[in-house]
Structure formats: structure tokens, C-alpha cells
Amino acid sequence: MRRWTGTGLLTVVLGAGGAWAQSPETLEAVRLHRAEARALARKDLEACTASKCADAGRIALLTGTLALAEGDVAEARTLLTGARVSAPLQPYLAYYQGQAHFYSGDAAAAAEAFGQAVEKGPPALVTRARARLGEALLAAGKAKEAAPALEKAAKEEPSAELLYQRAQARKAAGNATGAREDLKTVALRYPAHPYADEALAALEATKPPLRLTLAEHLQRARGLLDAGAPKRVLEELEKAEARKLARTKQDKAQVALVRAQALYVTGKKEEAEQALAVARQGPPAVAAEAAYVTARRALKADDNAKARELMAALEKSYPKESVADEAGFYVGWLDLQGGRFEDAVKSFKAFDQRHARSRRRDEAMWYRALAHLRLEQYGAAREVLDTLTSTFPRSSLVPQARYWSARSHELEGAKVDVTGPGYAAVITTAPNSYYALLASERLRELGKEPPAAFPESPKQLETGEVPPELKLAVALTEAGLFSDAAEEVRSRTARIRNQEQALTFAHALLRLGEYGHAHAVAARHLWGRAFGARVPEALAAFYPRAFASAVESEASRYKVSPFFVWAIMRRESAFRPEVASAADARGLMQVIPPTARAIAKKLAEPEPAPAELFSPSLSIRYGAWYLSQLMKRFSHPALAAAAYNAGPDAAVKWVRQKGSLPLDLFVEEIPFRETRGYVKQVLADLYLYQSFYGKDATPQRLSLTVPKPAVEGVSF
Predict the structure, then answer these.
(1) Is the pTM of this model over 0.85?
(2) Which of 108, 248, 567, 631 is deepest in the core (most CB within 10 A)?
(3) Dihedral of the CA atoms 681, 686, 688, 692 (nearest 10)?
């Protein structure tokens, strides 16, 4: 019979079906991307071959894919050629045979193998295989035959590679117009991709040559700016100017605005300001954007007085432009950050009057209430908070409005019979929130036992049946093809239509170790069941003990709470090992390469390659070590979470500036919006994990006092 281990790895207990050919150690190593995975798989294959076990083909498939991943194409081709596997795995064997043939230089053999995968594979595999089939046929000199495959593949999942390849196939098939369209799409939509330059060269070589308009040059320049390639932005603008495309004052202003942004990134401040001066002479929309860039620069440089002055001038000069909304909001926010609470009340009140349709109205109301709180004008604060909850009942700010309404009564000296119901209402209406945690602490301080946020802890469904739709994913997991299993799962979960199906799927995914997919299914379909009806089976998908053996082992090694590791993991990656951020943070714990190098140095280990940071095992270990060091220095989970997100130096600075405030006010005044939200969610999740899975009967308490961080300690 089968059981499911804590790491989500399927194993088999000896029974009628016999034992798995792969050892549990091998499967765990593969799932956690450990360096020894390939050697363990090879050892399993040798043992299976020697004993003539029935699963030699399946182990050869796994060992071959691991060889491919490490670039050993020759061994992969040897292992995969002639392997025999069960019917569900045959399309995957064909696909990886195609990969091995292709990278060995045998495009014709690759095309044949990919064709078999397309013919017999499930939809999740067919999409990938069809793209590779088209690529292989192109490489084999069969562009016309490649066209049908690439037409479908590029329509299903357009990418720079597929669109560029489809352009080649279309050209060979005589569809010159379609080829030009694809090349132009690559050049404009993916300007930083290597194929974009090739696409441009191909367009310029056509007869007549296709030349980009100024708008298209600007589109490419903005895309390159977003991709972090400022020098290429400047080159793109130079091309447009060399062709004298910027003829009008408006054209020149638009070019100058983009140039200024690129020049700032390259450190050429004086030239950037000269360009902004040109942009400010343009039409109102461009001039307002240029003024906003200048104001944001002052804000980024911590020159808040200058930033406020510039934001106020912008709002006054360009009241009808979209950036006036943002500028007006920042005027109030900068007043609040500067401790000018009376000015903040006036600024946010004026904002509400001038920008009645702003998407930031609820946020502006909240900050106006916060300014009243800081002025100890508790009745006025409650009036604004009540307006916020009645005007924007679906706003994410409602739980904090309710908490601070109750807190204002307490700060005013009201007794528990007045404040208690308000705090209790926060817990019952937003049980998974940071404000429910704060409300619980406030009630305990008042000598009242808070209502249980969740009467029951998360629990697994009693049945262990796997939905028929996930049978293939199970087979792929058994074979150690975890990335293929994840693709199959993604394909199947996209078709979920109701909550009952979602609950069954989520629990099957938890047993498969697909924690990220289980969480995604829950977030899409089970929110009401988990946090409205408080169904413990629904909660299990929101708060899994993901990669339990690795988390508990590393947390024990570095003396940090495993619940803290899970809380950080939940916020950073939602339990998905493959995630990468715009800042190049990678993996479950979202460690960036420079931090990884610093950690490796501290641990006296070789520096990991950036790709290794996607390894769940390494990510958990580095994340647990780093978190333990932050707790040693900051002694409070709120500060450690703030430092994990924004860096230790920022956390130290904020404590120095506002550490005398109680924790609830301190967190509200963290100046970085992202970090503020991050700290709130991590704290809520940490204490929920502790209450759900902790062994202590007594609830863990959250200190509402901000401690001083140690002078020495981790600083990166």
C-alpha cells in the first residue's frame, strides 16, 4: 500500500505490488535538486539491472533526464535509447529522447521523437513537444514541414523563440507578410531578447526594408529600460534621432523623457537633468511625467522636503494629468512621515476632495486616520475609519480600520466592555490577518481570552484517493519526473470548476508534494471555506508544512523556528521552488545571488551558481541560516521579517527613528509599502503556523514592544 511522506515524496511500503525501484533517498534528492541525485539514480539503475527488475526502463528515463540537465548529452542518449517504460510514460520518454538527439546534433532523429510525443502525449506535454518538433524540423532544413507545428505552438504559448522560428517557417512557406509580422512582434515585444536584434536585422534586409516609427523605437526603448539595459536604451534613441524621426516638440519631449530615465540609471545625473528640462517643455502629459520623475528621484534620495515641494507643485501645475493623483497622495504621505500630523490631516482631506475617483482614496483615508491617532484625536480618527469601512467595505484596509477603531477607544481610556467587542470582531471577521493577531494580544492584555480564530487546526481529508485526472501526475512523480508532474498538475488544475473538486485536488496535490499548486488551487477556489466557514480541510492547503523534513532539519540545525521558515516561504514564493523575482531572488526562500555568496562564505562553502538557488534543499538551508542570524540580531520576528525583506541596515534605521513606538504603530510607519505589508503577513502566518502545529498548549505571545537591535550581527 502507498503512503505519503512529510516531504511529499511518494514511497511504497512492501505489499502486493512490491517495492519501488528508485530508493526514497534518490527521489528526495531529485525533488530537492541535491547534487548527489544523478549518482543515486545511476546506483539504483545498476542495482535494478543486476537484479533484472521490471523498472529498469523507468529508472533509465529518470537517470537520462538528470544527465540531460547536467549537459551530459552522450550519456543521456545512451540511457534513453531503447529504454522500455509503461504506456503513460512513453510520450515522455520520446520527448526526452528528442532532447538528447537534438543536443547531439541529430535534428532529424529529434524531430521523429518529438513527433511521437506530440502524437501520444497529454495536452501539457504536447504543447512543449510541438514547439520542439518545429524547432527540430527547422534545424533539419525542413522549414515548410515545420510551419504547421510552429503555427500551433506559437498560438498556444507565444514566446520570442517560437515567434522567431515561426517567422522562418512562414518565410519558407511563402507567407512573407506573416513572417514580417512575427519578426516585428519579436523586435517590439521582446526588445532585450537576443532574437530581437536578429529580427530587426531580418526586417531591414527585406525588400522594401521595414523601418520602425518613432513610437516603435520608444516602445523598444521603454522595454529595454524595464529590462535594466539603459545603455541599449540610449542606443535605441540615437537610432531614432539619426533618422530624424523626432520632428515635433512633443516628439522631442517624449524622447528626452526616456533618455533622462536611462541616463539616471547609468549615473549621468547632469545629462539626465538636461534631458528632463527638454521633456518639461513638452505637452502637459509629458511635462507632468517629467516632473514626477524629478520628484521621485528626490524621494529615492531621502530628500523628503524637496520631494514634498516637487509633488505639491506637480499637483498644482498639472491637476488633470494622471500623475497628479499620485503626487497629491505623496504630499500627505510625506507630511505623515515627517511627523507633521496636522499638515497630513489637511493634505489627505484635500486629496479626498480633489481626487474623488482615485484608486488610493481608501488608503488616503487610512493615513488621515493614522495622523489623527498620532495627534491623539481619537474621535476624529474613528470618524474617518468608520467612513472608510462604510465607503469601501471590500477594501483590504477594513481589518486594520476596525482594529484601530477599537484601539482608539482603549487609548482614550475606555474599559474592556467597550474595547473588547471591537477587538473580538476583528478576530472573527479577519481571522487570518495580522490585525486578528494584534487584537488577540490586546484582549489578553486586558485580561480577556480572545475568541478562537480557528476552532480546528488544518487537517488532511480522510480519504487518500487520487482524482482520476491526477493519475498521470502520480505516475510521473513515481518516476521522479517532478517538473513534468508539475506541468501536468498545472494543466489539470486550470480546469477545476467547483469547490468540492478543488478541495479533493488540493489534498491530492499536498500528498504529491505539489505544495505551490495546492496553495494556488486553494487561493482561487477555497478562500471562503478556509476563512469564512473555517473548514480545517481547506486550511490545510493554505498552511502546508511544505518540504517538512528539510525545513525541520535546517531549522533545528540553525536554531530558528520552523514555523518562521514556513511563514517566510509562504510570503516569498507561495511554496513554488521555480519562482524568480524581478530583483533576481530565486527559489522557495527567494535568496538573491549576492546574499547567497555571502552566506556561503560564512558557512565556508563553495559559492553556489545562481541556478542552484532554485534547489529547494539549498534555498531552505540558506534561508533558515539567514533567518536565524536576523533573529539573533533583532530579537523580534517583526524586525527580522523587515530585515529579510528590506535589509538589516534599513531595519536598524527604522528602529533608531521610531523604535519608541509600540509595535502596532511602528509597523504602520515602516516607510516602504512592500515591507510594511510583508511584515504584517509574515507575522500573521508565523503565529497561525504556531497555533496550528505547535506542541505548546499555551499560545505563543507577540511582544508589542520594539527591542533595540544588536550593534553586531548580520549586515547583508
Answers:
(1) yes
(2) 567
(3) 150
